[in-house]
């Protein structure tokens, strides 16, 4: 894409920070959506949970990227926090989609974040973008999240849903908690370790989002996961090899459930998600294996 003005919501999150760095490094003008009073022309005020956005600040944007939402793993899933998880995604998406739809000169593309949680637990069964939504809180949240983008899509704006897997990074997310444990020699499998984890290196996550922005022929859902998901046991062994640490310890399932509550189902559940549409579009992973992804973040 030629140098453009691109709006990013969720610019302070793990993926958002990395995306903003990448875009800015290539000379794009990045506009960040912020919840406070803007401090410059590169910021736009919004309130995602209340569903409000300063639409005038989006004028001239070639792309709007929405990665905002309360952190799924930040807190125990109380009824109140589950409501916030849903509200922060659906409210923000609705506000942005309606703002985009109402613009005289709308952006070429609306990239609205989603997650592989859309599919729910899949066990050993591999799924791609053709699979239906699963059942439970995370699938229902992802379905509502994507549906909230309807105003933009119905207005003729190309709309893309990157369904992101577990991002391998020391800067945030699940792996930011795993790295210190493994470095200390305290890493090990979670539960029986047979559950599939569909991962993606942070570098490839950002590259894939930019691929979806740039390609005018791509729309709809795309799984942003590495080509070969592995079991938690296999990932644990790979972490030990790369970091040269033992991985003898294990966290039993009952302990995880006691510590994490309902969220433990997300850790112990198996999701074998394949990036079929992303590969068919010609995207090439720079770090396709777990060893590659771990070394990249180190």
Number of strands: 17
CATH fold name? Rossmann fold
Number of helices: 11
The shape is globular
Order of helices and strands, N to C? EHEEEEHEEEHHEEHEEEHEEHEHHEHH
Instruction: Return the domain count.
Output: 1
Structural class: alpha/beta
Using only CA atoms, what is the Rg? 19 Å
Mean of residue pLDDT? 92
Low-confidence stretches: none
> CATH architecture, please?
3-Layer(aba) Sandwich
Largest sheet: 9 strands, mixed
CATH superfamily: NAD(P)-binding Rossmann-like Domain
Structure write-up:
This protein is α/β, with parallel strands linked by helices and 298 residues long. It has a single domain (5-297), classed as Rossmann fold (3-Layer(aba) Sandwich). It is 38% helix and 20% strand. The chain has eleven helices and 17 strands. The protein has helices at residues 14-25, 79-102, 137-147, 150-154, 173-183, 202-214, 232-243, 253-260, 264-268, 276-280, 290-297, and strands at 5-9, 29-34, 43-47, 52-53, 63-66, 109-112, 114-115, 126-127, 158-164, 166-168, 188-190, 196-197, 199-201, 220-224, 230-231, 249-251, 272-273. Strands 1, 2, 3, 4, 5, 6, 7, 9 and 14 form a nine-stranded mixed beta sheet that branches. Helix 1 links the parallel strand 1 (5-9) and strand 2 (29-34). Helix 1 (14-25) packs across helix 6 (202-214), helix 2 (79-102) packs parallel to helix 3 (137-147) and helix 7 crosses helix 11. The longest helix has 24 residues, at 79-102. The two termini are 29 Å apart. The relative contact order is 0.14.
């Amino acid at each position: 894409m030629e140098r453009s003005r691109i709006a990013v919501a969720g610019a302070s999150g793990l993926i958002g920070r990395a995306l903003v760095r990448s875009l800015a490094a290539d000379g794009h003008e990045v506009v960040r959506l912020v919840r406070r009073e803007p401090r410059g022309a590169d910021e736009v005020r919004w309130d995602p949970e209340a569903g409000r956005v300063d639409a005038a600040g989006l004028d001239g944007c070639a792309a709007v990227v929405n990665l905002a939402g309360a952190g799924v793993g930040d807190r125990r899933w109380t009824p109140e926090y589950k409501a916030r998880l849903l509200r922060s995604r659906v409210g923000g998406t609705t506000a942005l989609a309606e703002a985009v739809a109402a613009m005289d000169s709308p952006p070429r593309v609306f990239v609205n974040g989603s997650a592989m949680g859309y599919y729910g637990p899949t066990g050993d069964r591999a799924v791609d973008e053709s699979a239906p939504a699963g059942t439970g809180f995370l699938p229902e949240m992802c379905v509502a999240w994507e549906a909230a983008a309807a105003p933009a899509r119905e207005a003729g704006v190309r709309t893309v849903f990157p369904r992101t897997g577990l991002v391998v990074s020391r800067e945030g997310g699940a792996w930011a908690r795993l790295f210190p444990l493994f470095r200390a020699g305290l890493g090990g499998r979670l539960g029986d370790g047979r559950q599939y984890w569909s991962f993606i290196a942070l570098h490839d996550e950002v590259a894939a989002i930019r691929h979806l922005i740039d390609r005018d022929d791509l729309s709809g859902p795309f799984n942003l996961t590495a080509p070969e998901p592995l079991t938690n046991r296999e990932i644990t062994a790979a972490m030990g090899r790369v970091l040269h640490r033992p991985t003898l310890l294990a966290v039993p399932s009952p302990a995880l459930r006691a510590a994490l509550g309902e969220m433990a189902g997300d850790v112990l559940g198996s999701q074998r998600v394949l990036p079929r549409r992303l590969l068919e579009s010609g995207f090439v992973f720079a770090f396709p294996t777990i060893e590659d992804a771990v070394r990249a973040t180190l």
